[in-house]
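Revision sheet: structure tokens.
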Amino acid sequence: MRNTATLTAHRFTCLVFFLVLSVAFANDAFGQAEVEPWGNLTGIRKDGQLFEFESMIKIQRGDYFVSTGKERQRPHFKRHGDEQVINTNMDSLYIKEVVRDESAGKATVTLTLYAHADIRFDNLFFELQLPGKEYGDGSTKLAGVHDAMKHYEPSGQNYDGIAESAQFKSAASHLQIKFDEPETIRIRKDISGTNDLQLYVSLKQSGLNKGDTLQKTFKIDVSGKIDTRTANLAIDTSKQGRQFVGLGGNFRLQNAKSDPEVIDYCLQNLRVAFGRVEMPWRFWQPDMNVDPTATADSGKLAVPVKKAMEMARRLDSLHIPFILSAWFPPNWAIVGKPNFRPVNGVWGNPLNKDNMQAIYKSIADYVLYLKNKYGAEPKYFSFNESDLGINIRISPQEHDDFIKGCGAYFAAHGVNTKMLLGDNSDATTYRFIDIAMNDPEAKPYIGAVSFHSWRGWDTDILQHWADAAARLNVPLLVAEGSIDAAAYNYPDIFQEQTYALKEINLYTRLLAICQPESILQWQLTSDYSPLIGGGIFGNNEPLHPGQRFWNLKQLASTPKGLYAMPMSCDAANLTAATLGDNSKHSYSVQLVNNGAKRKIVLTGLPANVKQLQVYTTSKALSMQAGAPVKVKNGKAKFKIEATSYTSLISQ
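Predicted:
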């Protein structure tokens, strides 16, 4: 029998537990609007299903339009309970947008606009774009009008006039937007091929004068059929592709105060299979005519170099292979004044061709010093994002020349490190690697192909990278993995379910399409941290994992060294990838559900697989282990949660 104090403590613990659950379920009930940090709504969820549309603020000057969008402004994003608050500006037009979740499927958008200077335009709009695939063959109805549009009419009819609200209806979806007063609107159908419906709500015509303030409120309500149809997945274990060694991470040191705690937590709580560290080149050899090895041996090793080498040694001591990448070059190695910010839209500096032998020697000396003094040897070397110029800019031909020149120097001086082909800023710039990929003289020095996943997620684009690795018969690395390179400007977005789900959805697609050896998270430090608190980004909560971290931990828990295997899926809002090893009878299935809770029927597993262990991460679940799923004759049936990431591992 427990004493009274114990019972009281137990009741208090239970009360706190149920309060936490209540908050969690309340957030699930209300946290429905999907809002990008620059203010564009991309839909509203109901029962987990996303009813898609996109909103934006748009300025019209004649035939020219400018609108809010990714990397077009420098916004600030915050969440306050059920409200998401965005502050941004378009030149002198300052915008505060508050998106409040009212109930499942309903949200209120409040815009407050302020002119910091006189602004001239023909029209200022709040625009909704409704996807043609959903609404193109539907119907439209307006309130507060006296013409035919007061009844549901086939979509696609142009309309210019005043209305109190608008409704768009299709066989599966319904969207209604109500204005706080009658508004001048315009309805068009995109004729460029998307068949999207466009609703323009005029906020102001003929410009604003300095000091003018304007506020508008819109209530948006979505409803329709919730897709809970059973999803059918089929694995083809007869085809074994490239190996996935596991999740990796970047460890570029930038914050001496906050980085160590995050790095310690990640290395202690994740199976990190690959790493990437910086070569602080400008500190290693600032003077071309001074031997950096002799300087280091005399006890004058620069602190950034020492810290970077210690980081490399730590990874090596954990048997984690790593990439060595250079960002900032010494002045003697480049042409012109160091350009670490864009000048007229151009980033970085080209290498000084007169000093190429000294460049090769400087890098090789670093690698040898790291190996001899710290016991760590990089597997690959790269210039970071040299296609763009972050911070060394080279042409495709120069990339080919560097691989051959530095690769040959390495080979002649006992350096085993190979060159990365690419290490591009984005998947979109895949043509950057073509010359080197097709140069037989470069091939012996190429150890792997690499790109960063910030932009360019179309299947065709990603397939180019998969094909390049297959053609050269080398591994493919996603050396920087994530989805928004500008997210450090609005770090609260890292805590949003929207961001976490998009990030792990991309990683699952990369596994299925690209078959990478590793996806290296940017970063496993305080920069873009997957952890919350600890003073990072001004958040002084105790350091703790968020949804993104649990996603990474779940992916990192994939058994080591499995191979990509094809999988078919008949559900549009479900992303799936399979990894397996027939010789070990080991298999892992990764599922990202961007919709409602649903049943899954999985087929194609070998007959000797009898059971699957299930883990689920979502807004409410942190890599929660579920009841094992039984497999009979290669077939398994189970359910997955709404808006979730689920992993199944054979047992």
